[in-house]
TrEMBL record, chains A, B:
Gene3D superfamilies: 3.30.1490.190, Winged helix-like DNA-binding domain superfamily/Winged helix DNA-binding domain
Organism: Piscinibacterium candidicorallinum
Family note: Belongs to the Fur family.
SUPFAM superfamilies found in the cross-reference section: Winged helix' DNA-binding domain
PANTHER family, A to Z: HYDROGEN PEROXIDE SENSITIVE REPRESSOR (PTHR33202:SF22), ZINC UPTAKE REGULATION PROTEIN (PTHR33202)
Entry protein name: Ferric uptake regulation protein
Compartments, as annotated in UniProt: Cytoplasm
Pfam family, one: FUR
Region (Disordered), start-end ranges: 129-149
Keywords: Cytoplasm, DNA-binding, Iron, Metal-binding, Repressor, Transcription, Transcription regulation, Zinc
DNA sequence: GTAGCTGCAAATTCTTTGCAGTTGT
DNA sequence: ACAACTGCAAAGAATTTGCAGCTAC
């Protein structure tokens, strides 16, 4: 039977209150505000558990680590901002794409990722970057991007 | 100045002779037939080098490790078979998708991945899987999938 | 001759797992 | 009580890097 621990609630809340898919490290940062001693292993264990029980959904973008969001919206896609690296939901879909596949191939599903600038990072001025949430997230991403350098 | 080593040629050839994007480990396996002592670090170093010089193209699919293919076809997409896990090029594109983005967002590009069955793994009979190349690749993928278990 | 390259081993990053102690029910 | 859970540290997998020796040019 599954228990209701402070840690699990904090993790679920962190994701529920975010308006976009979060990285495990971002979940940890957010959840630690409520449970300071929280460890990253517990975050990973709970993310896996919550996905299995259908509460969360894993979001995989090309070349990115897995993010997590609330299960809910069925089929949808994602948009990644090339400036702040954040990922947003896109509740639209191009529809049936089976016509694109090679002959003899059967298409069952598809993944689509759009790239560009989010509304906080307008393309006009590259040096802008003021919106609080965007700036906050950029630092998280900077830390994240240090991998393999 | 860049040199022309046996190792680099073997790596480039391995990718040139494949009909689909290869994982670094698959490149190593193929290139070692020509240069037995070849190490994985050399493969990674050359893949990065060849991408930078424009000879190769990195192929990132959601939740998959980076694969590599010859640069050539500009904008194209990919198809992954859910049975044999192999990835194939799709030389078609749904076209402009900016209409799908939220208001205030600017779309500059997109990535599309189709999922289903390739012509070697017909959906009719799940227990089939005979084609030699498919079987060969499946074992490579099995080894690959051992990660994090 | 020497700068670029290679193989090996060690380091890094992300994720998972073993274990001993803690806690929800 | 006791099984589920947690934090920590160690293990694993993919990728990168330091280094001493090799090799193309």
């Amino acid at each position: 039977m599954e228990r209701n621990t402070r840690q699990r609630s904090a993790i679920r809340d962190a994701i529920a209150q975010a308006d976009r898919p979060l990285l495990p490290q971002e979940v940890l940062d957010a959840a630690q505000r409520e449970v300071p001693g929280l460890g990253i292993a517990t975050v990973y264990r709970n993310l896996k558990l919550l996905v299995e029980e259908g509460a969360l959904q894993a979001v995989n973008l090309p070349g990115e680590n897995t993010r997590f969001e609330l299960m809910g919206h069925q089929h949808h896609h994602h948009f990644q901002c090339r400036q702040c690296q954040r990922v947003f939901d896109v509740h639209a879909c191009p529809g049936d794409l089976s016509r694109l596949a090679p002959k003899g191939f059967t298409v069952e599903d598809h993944d689509l990722t759009l790239y560009g600038r989010c509304s906080d990072c307008v393309p006009a001025r590259p040096g802008r970057a003021h919106a609080a949430s965007a700036e906050q997230d950029r630092s998280a991403m900077r830390a994240h991007k240090q991998k393999h350098r």
